[in-house]
Structure formats: structure tokens, C-alpha cells
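User: quick one, fold this
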Amino acid sequence: MWETFPCWSWESNEPLELKSFVQSFQKIVPSQRWVFCRSDVAQTSRQLWTATTVSNRNTERGTAQARTLDAEFLRVLAGTHNVSEAFKRAGLQNKSTSGWLLHIPDQTTSMNQDSIDQKANALLNGLGLSKTSESLAINFEGARNLGISFDETVDVSRIEASLIGHILLADVSSSP
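Assistant:
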């Protein structure tokens, strides 16, 4: 398994028209293992590996709330039962100019990093996006957008634990 999560930050010179962007993406995406999210959502490799483990497990067990792996990944990343709420919290928004392209690894098979990088570059180029050098980083506002609440005095090191806990609670029922 890679230590760092397979993800690529990107930017666009023009704000995305989300509907046509999604249609273009669906035409060229090689599998359901690719997903776009907002720039403030992907924050740490451990957060993304946790979402990968949960979404892969749910899909394999037939307990996924979403119909596709990419949507299930966004759902657990957003920490919600509701798929449309997940897209509001974690998915690209209309007029986005930056974000992340994520590859959801199949943890039962080995990955060829060069091959995955080539596919990512082809997807970004095919959609007219430019890869940037931005790194994953803790983002308080992004955590709030995902539905995590905390006070301003919280230590940054605790945000990652909150992001992971948020993912793990996505499938916990709120009813008795």
C-alpha cells in the first residue's frame, strides 16, 4: 500500500460548468475508482485511506448506500448516510476552479504507481485541468463544511482524528 494517498491537486483557468464537466468526466473515466472532490475536503492521507477502506468494505459487503464506489467514497468521506448531502459537502461545486482528483485504490490488489499517475494525468489533461503542486493539509473550514463541529481552540493535531471519526460514524445509525 502506498504511504501517501494517490491524489492530484488541480486548477482550472475557467470556472467549471459542473453539469458539462461531469458529463465529460463520465465519458473518459476508466473506472469508478476515480473521483473529484473540493479542494478543502481532502486533507490527510490517513483520512483518505480510511474513506477508501470503509467504501471498499461497504461495496464488497453489499452494504453501500450509494450505487457506485465513487459516490460511496464521497458519502463516507462526508460522514453522512445521504448521498446527495455528500455531494453538497464533499463534491465539486458549480464554478469550482480547483480541487482534488482522487484514485480509490483496490486494497486487495497491488497498484502500479506509474500507471495510476499516467491515468491521472490523462484524466486531468482530457478535462482541460492543470495539475498543481498543492499538498494535502488540514483545513478548518473544510472540516466544518464536512459537518464536523469544534471550537476555535482545538489543536490542529486533533482535526485529523475528527476527520477519521467522522468517516467511521457515517454508517452508524442515529436511531435506537
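User: anything notable?
Assistant: The chain has one domain: 7-169.
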